[in-house]
Amino acid sequence: MANTTASRVSLKTERKLRLFQDDAYVSIDLQQKVLTVIRKPPAGAAAAPGQMAVEERSYEQGDALRLEIEAFLDSIRAGRPPAVPGEDGLRALETALRITALVQGS
User: Fold this and answer.
1) Does the predicted TM-score (pTM) go above 0.70?
2) Which run of H or of E encompasses 88?
């Protein structure tokens, strides 16, 4: 199961992706650049009840849109294909449109 949150009208600015698995919870804070993974101990492992392994990593702040544009311009200048081909972008757009249609009940 996955949950995404992005709001421009909320009282707090938030961009998060949350993934729920049988043995783990993953939270990716796209705004603060923090990845948190909380895991249950493996089956049969000697662990106290309710004990979880928590990993948290921070990533360098950057401007993803600026980096995307720079990479595209570099591919033009160097005469090589872009890192992400147009076909992949089209598939991503088609997927987003399908999700939107499903959410709206179309």
Assistant:
1) no
2) helix 86-103
